[in-house]
Backbone:
């Protein structure tokens, strides 16, 4: 267990939604948006050359949002993002901006030696958020995102899997949202997507039905059997109808094929961080740290098969201002 010594500023103030990937050589690749409303462009930064270099990927009067990034086995970079046009109005005497739908979902890649943009064939006028992307050993993309296929009436949210593994983009619904009598929809929060050596995808997600007494869940899903199979990891009834209960952390799959999930659980005990795994053949969960002191745990498997965990710690045990970033290793 060790505290990270510090951080390095790689971009000007005003950036949003940073996502990063690491290539085989250990270089970092970051995608994020930056700019003043109503325009916000997509940027890419990397330290592959030894020092940080930033590049503006888009320049348009619209809003680019929710980027995801991955590096394939050949070292080519892939970025997925959405684009929408904002409406301008006023709120409490101030200028405000709003958006109701994605105008496009698009893919940018350096596979041809330069940045090339192509549109992902998804319906116009719908919302998307929370994308996560990974590549398989052939360099094909596997994406999990939250998608709303409805604009009128109560909005429904679905959890979607998107891939170009066959050479063309195809979409599969992992979990279809439902809307209760009060007009509230299931809300999904997916983890990072993992692709194994066989090209099969794995993802974990939380399922929280807004303002309902329905059970909240953490669910693990994989298409390892050529179709999506979902397994409930943990279930909890909310103390009150509008409690979210679960927040998604991260997913890792070790060399044996066992899945490991981190997630936050909130309730009368406060916020608690958990690690769940099916390495014994059934799902078990363990609390990672003191109640209300550990947050936002993220996990990965290193080249030796060990689990690496990064988390925030607040309160006692940290020097002023009483927050610090730690990592732990599980053999």
Residues:
């Amino acid at each position: 267990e060790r505290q990270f010594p510090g951080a390095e500023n790689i971009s000007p103030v005003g950036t949003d939604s940073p996502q990063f990937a690491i290539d085989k050589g250990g270089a970092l690749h970051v995608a994020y948006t930056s700019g003043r409303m109503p325009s916000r462009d997509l940027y890419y930064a990397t330290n592959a050359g030894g020092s940080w270099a930033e590049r503006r990927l888009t320049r348009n009067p619209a809003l680019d949002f929710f980027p995801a990034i991955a590096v394939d086995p050949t070292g080519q970079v892939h970025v997925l993002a959405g684009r929408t046009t904002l409406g301008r109005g006023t709120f409490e005497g101030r200028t405000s901006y709003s958006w109701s739908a994605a105008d496009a979902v698009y893919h940018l890649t350096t596979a041809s030696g330069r940045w090339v943009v192509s549109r992902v064939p998804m319906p116009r006028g719908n919302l998307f958020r929370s994308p996560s992307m990974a590549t398989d050993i052939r360099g094909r993309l596997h994406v999990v995102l939250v998608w709303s296929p409805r604009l009128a009436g109560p909005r429904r949210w679905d959890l979607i899997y998107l891939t170009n593994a066959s050479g063309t983009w195809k979409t599969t619904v992992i979990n279809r949202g439902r809307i209760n009598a009060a007009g509230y929809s299931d809300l999904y929060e997916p983890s990072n997507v993992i692709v194994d050596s066989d090209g099969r995808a794995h993802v974990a997600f939380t399922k929280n039905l807004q303002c309902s007494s329905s059970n909240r869940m953490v669910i693990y899903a994989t298409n390892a059997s050529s179709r999506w199979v979902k397994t409930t990891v943990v279930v909890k009834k909310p103390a009150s109808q509008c409690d979210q209960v679960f927040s998604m952390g991260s997913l890792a799959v070790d060399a044996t094929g066992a899945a490991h999930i981190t997630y936050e659980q909130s309730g009368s005990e406060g916020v608690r961080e958990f690690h769940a795994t099916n390495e014994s053949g059934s799902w078990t969960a363990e609390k990672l740290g003191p109640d209300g002191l550990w947050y936002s745990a993220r996990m990965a498997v290193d080249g030796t098969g060990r689990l690496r965990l990064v988390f925030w710690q607040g309160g006692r045990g940290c020097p002023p201002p009483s927050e610090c970033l730690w990592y732990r290793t599980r053999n």
The mean pLDDT is 81. The two ends are 12 Å apart (CA to CA). The chain has no helices and 27 strands. The CA atoms of residues 84 and 102 lie 5 Å apart.
